[in-house]
């Protein structure tokens, strides 16, 4: 067994346990955006960064992929960790519109929640934002690549959990986008509209069309009553 301390709590875990798993067992929540329980860590979002001290050295590492080592003293809320998470959110917002009130996922968005939690209201970076066309071809859900943070949760869900392989990452760098093979519309792809990708999306990039009905100002109807 491996012994470590997380946020002052001594933990004893089996070899190969990740810091995220050990923290969860100790009742400590670490923020994640790309992590899917049961799958190999994607490691793309860097939101789960923690500070690890051992034998005189310290480093930041991703809790979802780093394993607990004997004698680790791990901090999940240190100044360095908070600064790192703010930096991640700042970078994500550099290519993400912040007009949340017009987003169908307003109030149900992990990115929005973390921005509130870590006090990141807007990006400190100035520059171009992606302007991809919105794919509204599927009768049940909409894909807006401009709200995508490339966490790959939808891709990993479609490919590794559902086993459909209807979507993947295309292009490189700033032009990276989640796409169907050959960039065809979702309606014309092998997508079976199971909706698991939509459930996996932490932002408003993939949204159920019927979710619009949940917006109170869109369904509000005036009716006559007697009382
Ligand atoms: Fe660990 Fe995304 S949750 S890198």
Task: Please tell me about this protein's structure.
Helix content is 22%, strand content 16%. The chain has 227 residues and is of the alpha+beta class. The longest helix is centred in the middle third of the chain and has 15 residues, at 79-93. FE2/S2 (inorganic) cluster is lined by residues 32-35, 41, 43-48, 62, 64.
| Distinct bound molecules | FE2/S2 (inorganic) cluster
Shape: globular
> How many extended strands?
9
Mean pLDDT: 93
Kindly provide the radius of gyration, computed on alpha-carbon positions and rounded to a whole number of angstroms: 20 Å
Taking the sheet with the most strands, its summary is:
5 strands, mixed
Strand content: 15-25%
Question: What's the SSE blueprint?
Answer:
Elements: E1 2-6, E2 9-13, H1 19-25, E3 49-54, E4 57-62, E5 73-75, H2 79-93, H3 110-117, E6 141-143, H4 153-162, E7 168-170, E8 177-179, H5 196-200, E9 206-208, H6 216-219
Parallel strand pairs: 1-5
Antiparallel strand pairs: 1-2, 3-4, 3-5, 6-9, 7-8
Bound molecules: FE2/S2 (inorganic) cluster.
Write a short abstract of this structure.
The chain has 227 residues and is α+β, with helices and mostly antiparallel strands.
Short key terms for the protein model shown above:
about 230 residues; alpha+beta; 6 helices; globular; binds FE2/S2 (inorganic) cluster
